[in-house]
## 1
Amino acid sequence: MAKNNNNRIFLVTVFIFAMILLLALLMTSRGAAKYEEQKTARNGNKKMSPIVQAYAARTENPPTAERALELLKAGNLRYAASNRLSDPGVGKESRKFLALGEWPYAVILTSSDSRVPPEYFFDAGLGDLVVVRVMGPVVDSTVIASVENAMMDGKCRLLVVMGHKDSRAIRNAINAVEYPEMNESYNLDLVTQKIIPAVLKVKKSTHTEEGLRKAVTLANINLVIQQIQAGSGDLQRLVNSGKIRIVGAYADISSGKVEFLNESGK
């Protein structure tokens, strides 16, 4: 009988010891896992490429309009010098990160001309720019809504309205003033009519043919900026409060250089 009791005590002791050992191992495992999680969190940014690190930083601290303008200028300098980044942020790692959301630093409203893609002209990657492209460029409610959609939440603080050299829309508007009897299609003529006020603001006699086209382009840029602000009280309030800026730009197709205008944003 005593022997049986001793066996039971022995078995219970072994069981208790085994449970203590198992619990200790479990706690050690959890502690190691927690340590690894903390280590990963601390070193996470070190494992990201510089491009994704910069993008991740924007999720917490969106660039100011001034900083966004600096990024655009730096990117354009690289493009014009044929010194573009090997990967501006279009690879698998960038795509995976961007599946979480978007935090662009600038909106570019420009013409639909195939020769002036903003992503190339500013050497930008995925998620960097919101690009709105329409012939002219001209403005309607859809264009304004596209800009509002990108800028109302405060993540994106810079809007660039960019015209360019050798624009067909600008040529059409100049020709329409000189030869009012000429017309193209109904829809093309609608665009032309929106640019004609810019043509009428420019004194033709003071310009060469090429100079006239640039002058009309610049006048149209300013007209578009005014129309955006007049068409959106929300954007106008953000401009007045200094929370966003709107600047003009002129792209030279042959040189690749972008000239920024009215940088005060007023």
Note: The beta strands are 106-110, 129-133, 158-164, 245-251, 258-261.
## 2
Amino acid sequence: MPEHPIQMTMPPCGASRFSFERLWRILATGFCFALFGLGGLVILLLAFPLLRLAVWQRPRRQAMARDIVCLTFRFFCKVMTVTGVISFEVRGLEKLQRRGLLVVANHPSLIDVVMLISLLRQPDCVVKASAWRNPFMLGPVSLCGFIRNQNGPQLIEDCIASVRAGSNLIIFPEGTRTRIEALAKRGANPLQRGFANIAVRGRLPLTPVVIAVTEPMLSKQQPWYQAPLKRPHFVLTVHDDMNPDQIVPADTAPTLMARVLTSHLSDFFSRELQK
């Protein structure tokens, strides 16, 4: 796929410019949302119940459930590109073809997690607590063994255990999607320290993924029907691992080490997004 220059353009609210191509992308985006919801119901009502009946060993059942989610998201990404909703490319994909990764990425769009899960073997992620109370979400998140977002040290321990068990854990240090004003400046929200505490206390390297996009789409404060003027092109660049011990002396107090590591990754994201 040819490379696209990353030139962020922010159409003003209520921009009057319209075209058949933009109308098509609005309709195609709505179709993709409907397809995603329908696919989720099929998995919930058909695939996962069959999996529970056919596979008794919990670890094997969990691994197969994650494979189903990965393949489903991969198919969904293909539909988005074929219908012209987005285009995307991945640089350094071979670095994700490993196990036991702590993947940290910026979060410009709602579909970031979909793209990342579609690229990883045995993906894992932290799911907000409300999903565990949602009857439509409880089955999938529990069957896949995703991590419950909760306060306290247990969350950090669960994340460390996931990576050490060979799962590829996805973390968005911004905590939420990048706000539109930060996207306009080719930046990211301030980073939270949760990822750094996981890396420091677990002595785990980070695998940074910088996600750049030519046009803001499904970002914070942006509804699905507010299609950008041009088709967004996503570039996911997988960088070399960052080892906390190579950034901060190993004998540094964990709290200070996490703070320095957070600042280091924040500066790294800023430099790469400005490119």
Note: The longest strand covers residues 207-213.
## 3
Amino acid sequence: MTLTRRGALTALAGAGLVSAAPRIAIASGEATLPEAEVNDDGLHTQSWFHDSFLDLAEDLGEAAAEGKDLAIMFEQRGCPYCREMHNVNLRKPEIVDYIKANFVVLQLNLWGSREVTDFDGEAMEERALARKWLVNFTPTISFFSRDSAGIGDKSGRDIEAARMPGYFKPFHFASMFEYVHDGAYKDENFQKFLQEKFRRLEEEGKKPSIW
């Protein structure tokens, strides 16, 4: 089930009705990890991102062998929301620890020229892959479940578990990773997942920050 931009906006509109993820206790206050570095392409990046030969089927297979899912982040030079994602969300240890434990993360350049091989075996430049997958803005994160490893001749656009179409605040951002890794995307949309989490937290007497 792919989260559309409209669905994402609907979920974000309900931010006042949702709170933090049950297994990622997002602390309030300042982030504690160092700021992201900027690579030669002008992209903010993390040292723990996957170093890949850009064969996506192989990357997903490697992730699945470790019990992890695959997240592919499309970013671009000068993107203020990409910078926000790196210097806010990815400076929170509780978020980064969860992602590193459960995902292989691959960063692609929306306008990049490196050759990437789609899951269906078609090789093309990063920017062509972005067009093929209908990625139009940054950051966009495409999620692929470990259950899809070895799927065969389907494009990534056809086997996405979910998509994060733009910058999400830390709670929503962390929750999307949980939504995929827990397999909740198979049974419900992201908005419902958020609402159910908030209901459970209310029952537990918890009211964590959504920021």
Note: Residues 5-16+28-203 form a domain with the Glutaredoxin fold (CATH 3.40.30.10).
## 4
Amino acid sequence: MTDLSQALALLARREQELAALHAGHEDWVRAFSHDLRAPLRHITSYAPLLRETLHGAGLQGVDAQEAEQFLGVMEQAARRLGSMLDGTLLMARVLRQRQPLHSVDLAQMAAEVRDALLAADQGQEVQWRLPVAPLLLQADPDLLRQMLQALLGNALKFSRGSSPARIELQAQALPDGGVRWQVRDNGVGFDGARAAQAFGLFQRLHREGEFDGVGVGLALAQAVARRHGAALALSGTPGQGCTVTVDWPAAPAG
């Protein structure tokens, strides 16, 4: 009984420590949500006022052009910082979300995500190839949807210069009962030697001016995969597209 009492006491202490960690995490998220956005709002609000002041002062010629250039850089940096804060908050939500796993049809969800992406970007010719038959995974539906939005959204973005763009999601059963599914595109690709760094938050494989975004999508997909005990890998070749491979377990990890 002594050993059992000690074990129960240790478990209670660990639960208290975990609760304290969760509380600290919530405080951190609130700081990002409110405290850090206040100075950013000042920058974005006062930049147009400063532009009006400069115009009202009669600034002309090279001085006016330089002032406009400086303001443009400042506003662009503020927008980027706002996107980075949004991405950090999204990652925080993924890491703290604790929802029961359900049987989710990957094929149906991928089709829904595709339709939403096309509705937001109707000017691009895209050839989609998605599974038709049901493809069931044990997953948190919200997290799986965010993962698909990140992967299919990236495929669409980086294949924008291809005519037509081709995006494919295919799947096959693994010997242990899991599922390997892949998202492929025929876009700009990347140097495969840099694949490992792509999963870091705010890491980019292309120059900032070439594509929008701040480097959150693959980090988010990796976080979702790990939450489900899945493994994620990236491969690509410059000018020949990219493939994201996900090995999804047959049952929840642990």
Note: DSSP finds six helices and seven strands in the chain.
